[in-house]
Write a structure and sequence with these properties.
This protein is α/β, with parallel strands linked by helices and 247 residues long. The chain contains 8 helices and 9 strands.
Length: 247
């Protein structure tokens, strides 16, 4: 999605300034991977972590791009698991050509701040990186305003919280929420995936209205659709979030 005026002109100037390059793009810049990046052993492989998103600028005259494309076009496809094409470029560079994340620019595999990869990331406009002229995959929503809600005649709001039952995430979330002064939420609904987690949550936090849902029939991202919300407004988060006092 283009952001800002004259975005195509900006990209044209960026191409000129970044030449020579093979691929000019953006790594993932959202918050969805944050809790996994420092785990050992790594959960996110380097070919995914350091790949440039497919909405990038490709120099089709560059030898690296030509080699990968030609190889993929002639490779057998039947019963062979394949990475997506954008990850495949990084995979070849790291695992076949011997480059490292820090030496990828030497291959012409370069980043640009004019493109921003926020694939499947929930963001408010203020969280879109400044200077980005094209943003990939962001699920942009407007921040809730109590003043605006009152103008519509009703400011009642439900907080829908997804909890995977991993460690102390729920405890940390509730502790942070309790520190928020004048919480705007009329009710808080917790969605878990098993009865034991539901029972434990209600026992520890009587304020919660906890339910369970089978995520095998649709991931946790569907919780905001299936939760029994009766208020005019609602917010859907998970326990990886942390409420702040300025809420």
């Amino acid at each position: 999605e283009p952001h800002g005026a004259a975005w195509l002109d900006a990209l044209q100037h960026e191409v000129i300034n970044a030449t020579p390059f093979a691929i000019l793009g953006s790594r993932y810049e959202g918050h969805n991977w944050r809790r996994y990046l420092d785990l050992s052993p790594p959960v996110i492989p380097d070919k995914l972590r350091y790949h440039l998103n497919g909405n990038a600028i490709y120099n089709i005259s560059h030898e690296f791009v030509q080699v990968v494309v030609d190889t993929e076009l002639t490779a057998p496809r039947a019963n062979v698991a394949r990475s997506s094409y954008d990850v495949r470029f990084c995979e070849v560079a790291l695992e076949q050509l011997g480059y490292t994340p820090s030496t990828l620019p030497l291959l012409g595999y370069k980043q640009t701040t004019l493109l921003s990869n926020l694939a499947s990331t929930l963001v408010v406009p203020a969280r879109v990186p400044s200077g980005a002229f094209v943003v990939h995959g962001a699920m942009t929503v407007q921040p809730w305003s109590a003043r605006c809600a009152r103008r519509h005649g009703d400011s009642s709001m439900t907080l829908v919280v997804t909890d995977w039952g991993e460690g102390a995430d729920l405890a940390k979330f509730m502790s942070a929420l309790s520190a928020v002064r004048a919480s705007p939420f009329t009710e808080i609904k917790l969605v878990t995936q098993d009865i034991s987690s539901q029972a434990a949550a209600v026992t520890a936090y009587p304020i919660l209205d906890a339910t369970t849902r089978d995520w095998s029939s649709g991931g946790a991202e569907w919780d905001f659709c299936t939760a029994d919300v009766t208020t005019t407004w609602f917010i859907a988060v998970n326990t990886y979030f942390s409420p702040v006092p300025t809420l």
